[in-house]
Design goal:
60% of the residues lie in helices and 6% in strands. It has 102 residues and is mainly α. The protein has a domain of 66 residues. Helix 2 runs antiparallel to helix 3. It is elongated, with a radius of gyration of 20 Å. The two termini are 21 Å apart.
């Protein structure tokens, strides 16, 4: 099995910092655990936003194709869906309450 992400410890080595995907400035392994938690949280929020937005858009398109949703209301609904997907993605910037092992 091969690694897919490289992590460098400490700010001293420019070569390892350039080669790594993530640089942890302290030498604590606890930060690696925190990095893993943050990445899992970011991935789940991104998937929620992307898949939720696409699912809502598909439902809106089906309603429009069947004649239940006029064009103007459909355009407004699409903007609302886009806003909700972006607002959900902004949750990444908020710190989590606790870090929970998965």
């Amino acid at each position: 099995m091969t690694a897919t992400v490289g992590v460098a410890f400490g700010p001293n080595s420019d070569i390892t910092s350039e080669a790594a995907d993530a640089v942890i400035l302290t030498t604590s392994l606890g930060k690696v655990d925190e990095l893993i938690h943050i990445s899992h949280r970011m991935r789940s929020i991104a998937l929620q936003s992307a898949l939720g937005g696409m699912a809502a858009s598909v439902l809106g398109m089906i309603a429009a194709a069947l004649g239940f949703l006029p064009a103007l209301e459909g355009a407004i609904l699409q903007e609302i869906i886009d806003f909700l997907a972006v607002a959900n993605a902004v949750r990444v910037a908020m710190p989590p309450r606790t870090l929970v092992d998965f």
